[in-house]
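Handout, section B. The chain below has 104 residues.
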Amino acid sequence: MYVRMLRVHVPPEKMDDFIQLWHDEMLPFAKAQKGWKSARLLVDRQAGKTVIMGVWETEADARASGNMGSTHVQKQQAMAASLLGARPEVEMEYYEVAGDAWEQ
């Protein structure tokens, strides 16, 4: 499995709206992508920072989902831009999952 990690700055006053956008629109769209396994949205409300971690079946799936020219990424950026008033600056990184533990 591979993780595509995105860091997005969201003004603190728009954080609740961004969280709702992620749940209602961005996450369902991501779920439809090839190789999607799971996702987490982490936020630091006071600092206006978010981290979106998407887990993908293969490295190729993770990278394809993050291709800046892809319809998927353009759609996600358009969703965020509609809320934030401009396309957000996004830092994107990829990691192989070398360990995984979740309490059930």
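Note. The domain at 2-96 is CATH 3.30.70.100 (Alpha-Beta Plaits). Compare this with the example in section A.
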